[in-house]
Amino acid sequence: MAIRRICKYGESVLEKKTRKVEMREFKKDLPGIIADMFETMDAVGGLGLAANQIGLDLCVTVIKIKKENEEYLRIVLINPELVEKSGLMSEEEGCLSFPGLFAKVKRYSKVKVRAFNEKGLPIEVNGEGLFAKALQHELDHLDGVLFVDRLPFITRMKLKPVLMKLKRQWRKIDESKMRIVNSETAK
After folding, report:
1. 34 in helix, strand or coil?
2. 98-122 confidence digits (pLDDT tens)
3. Range of the domain at 97
């Protein structure tokens, strides 16, 4: 397992739709990629991470969310599709590809996603609230859509000069060179 560098705003891999995973083709490499994705996400305290955020053109995402009983639910979604959506919410959202930037984004409050798990078995996941937001955010990444693309046009225009300035700073950040000081934060 290894912590990978997270691609930042402005890198073209984030703006392209990822290619579907053929399980036969990636069966050998997938466990290592998934382990790296969870380790990278844990190292920076993230909730979700898409494969293209670590430079891979694969339709794979991982999500780690705290359940009511304080345990974590770790989910791997391969070739996911949003099949149902309802309700609306508008909440602050951030992204590991935009370190420290948060903005209010409109999302569906309930969603259903169909995908394959890490074993290649079909799964169906229902999400509400924060979990629904995470699912939509990660599926957007796999489609080459960034959370700032979901902002109203006027907000995006006002944010553009700030993003250009931050883009230069973010380019210097390399999570793969980080050391986890407290392993408890990675659980």
Report:
1. helix
2. 999 999 999 999 999 999 999 999 9
3. 12-175
